[in-house]
Amino acid sequence: MLPSLDVRFRNLIKSVQEVIAPTIPDDEKLAQEQVRLVVGHLAMMQEQWKNAVRFEAGSYRLMRELAEGLAGLVDEGQAADLQASLEQTRATVQDDIDALNAAICTIGAAIDRVILGEDGRKPLSPDAYRLLLDYGDKSSLRDRVWFKGNEIDPDRDSLPPLEEIL
Questions:
Q1: C-alpha Rg value of the chain to the nearest Å
Q2: DSSP character at residue 155
Q3: For 157, what's the count of Cα atoms within 13 Å in the CB-facing half-sphere?
Q4: 10 Å Cβ neighbour count for 128?
Q5: CB distance 60 to 93 below 8 Å
Q6: pLDDT tens sequence across 26-66
Q7: Is the dihedral of CA 64, 68, 71, 73 positive or negative?
Q8: What is the DSSP string of 68-123?
Q9: CB-based contact 64:89 (threshold 8 Å)
Q10: Among 23, 78, 87, 149, who pairs with 74 as Cys (CB 3.0-4.6 Å)?
């Protein structure tokens, strides 16, 4: 029987902390820092892996919502580009993390082209700016909750539980 992912993460962390870290000389500060980063990332991944697909599915839905909203606020060519990305990703399987990531990239690229506006020759409307700022608020809150485990957010105690942003 294979060990669960939780057991595997615990064993990796223990191995790095108890076998690798003690062998690093005291004057090798960069190596010591890298070991702490590896342990920290493994610990965070241990917390996140069970919800990773749900988190990405939420990111996908949020990105689609932004593209759909922008499509009504930009010129015809930009709207057609956004609509094409939405159509291309419409059948994205919600439990396939690779498919979700690919869809997010496809829609995100179309949104980026709208934001860049042909090197500033097509400025965004105030409504489009508001929509982008609203998306940024939602997305940054989700990211802050997702990475709450790194304990560097000064307001982490005021963040909602993970379940609320999935």
A1: 21
A2: T
A3: 1
A4: 19
A5: no
A6: 999 999 999 999 999 999 999 999 999 999 999 999 999 99
A7: negative
A8: HHHHTTS-HHHHHHHHHHHHHHTT--TT-HHHHHHHHHHHHHHHHHHHHHHHHTSP
A9: yes
A10: 78
CA 96-97-103 angle, to 5 degrees, is 90
Tokens of 98: 């690779």
pLDDT value of residue 12:
95
CA angle 110, 95, 134 (to 5 degrees): 40
What is residue 4's DSSP assignment?
Answer: P
Place of tokens 């700022």: 133
Q: Token digits for 93?
A: 């399987």
Q: How far, in Å, CA of 112 to CA of 129, rounded?
A: 13
* Site of tokens 């965004």: 124
- Chain position carrying tokens 């790194």: 150
CA 158 to chain centre: 20
Of 143, 73, 66, whose CA–CA distance to 109 is shortest? 66
| DSSP, res 49 | G
Amino acid at 73: L
pLDDT confidence of residue 34: 96
